[in-house]
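Here is an idea for our session: we take a single protein and study its fold together. To get us started, please write out a protein record for me. Once you have written the record down, we can walk along the chain together.
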Amino acid sequence: MKPGAVSYVLGWFFIFFSGALLLPGAIAIGFREYSSLWVFGTSAAISSLTGALLVRYLGEKEDLGHRDGFAIVVFGWLGASLLGALPYVFSGTMGFIDAFFESVSGFTTTGSTVLSSIEPLPKSLLFWRSLTQWLGGMGIIILSLAILPVLGVGGMQLYQAEMPGPTKDRLAPRIQDTARILWGVYIFFTLLETLLLVGGGLSVYEALCHSFTTMATGGFSTRTASVAAFNSAYVDYVITFFMFVAGINFTLHYRFLTGRLNAFWRSEEFRFYLWVGLGATVICTVFTIIYGIYDDPLTAVRFGAFQVWSIMTTTGFGTADFDLWPPVCKLLLLSLMFLGGCAGSTGGGIKQIRLVVFLKFMRVQLQRLIHPRAVGTIKIDNHRVDHEVLQGVLGFLALYMTVFVVASLIVTAQGVDLITGTSAVIATLNNIGPGLAKVGPTQHFAHLPALSKVVLSFCMLAGRLELYTMAVLLSPAYWQGMRFSRRQRQES
């Protein structure tokens, strides 16, 4: 790793990030929350100063290597989470640990919160809360690649380290152009949802905040009761549709919007994602009717579909307390938490494509037991899956289970009950938001011990960055051979 090159890029990233911290100032002026101008102005100044110091005293403009990409992404996300916590602290809303947890939950689009009541907070702070999810949804490093030319050097390393999924689709020869295309599609759907929600009676402010967190599959709301507060079937269906959209690979959206109308159906991952979601919706609908939760089939479909797509896409919005649903529905939703969205979407979780590959791998193994001499191949969309990709999928699943078990042990060792502790880890590791029991859809995370919040914050970051990116930096081998620039060697 080259510390000078990493510091140079991180410095410019934090300077760019200070601009995002100033955006809620417009909301503060609009709602006459003038005291919030100091909160966001000071936070932006600290971010800009941090970046300037890194560029001036530690930075060195060099070509980035593969290792540098991992460091920039991890420290970029960690730095953004720390700086993003400052408005919560400066406004007096919460202490540092809670503020860091809330900030990480925002940028990783998890949606878990320590807030028991949302409405009393300043509108500008709630806007910042939603904005963090929107920025984190498509990726703050990817956004920087699209805007800052200085990050164009070594951009592929950053793109591969941040974008979710076992494979990375490039839509253009230059990685900056790919980043701009992805963000363009992302903005298009955000604006479209905002217009539809305004048409459903929401204010422009609430429509924009909820569009931010829907397209990011984040789940932060401006209401304590989440989307249920609007009590509108129209709003529920609009948000359900856009949660479904956000869980799809954005490269498929781009291909569809540019005239390739069969792009979705040709994707095996999309078909699997669609049928799993529809099947789960049918099961939840039927059993909530059988158990008398809902009398009207249309109401059961409305709430069943919303909860299924909210959980499977790892958005985390709520219109019903599914913790009160029949056990089969709760178990089904808990299982969906692991799946997540498609690769290349804003959804978290294991990703649908990994499950498709794993199921095909199991089928090949069974065939070999029956026909030992048979040569089985795994194909996705009529393309053979490389051995390296298969190894990556199996390694990811092993690493995933290791992190899940270790984190669950640490959390439950602090006196947190089994259902609450394990579901909290599932909810944060998969970037979902709500869990079960004391962290259920109508509860919050404020009551958890401080160490648990730190562990769960790590789970959120690890889940958003696909585990490997975080795990690489924890490996001693990564730090061997660290190379300082000529200027840094002279200064030392």
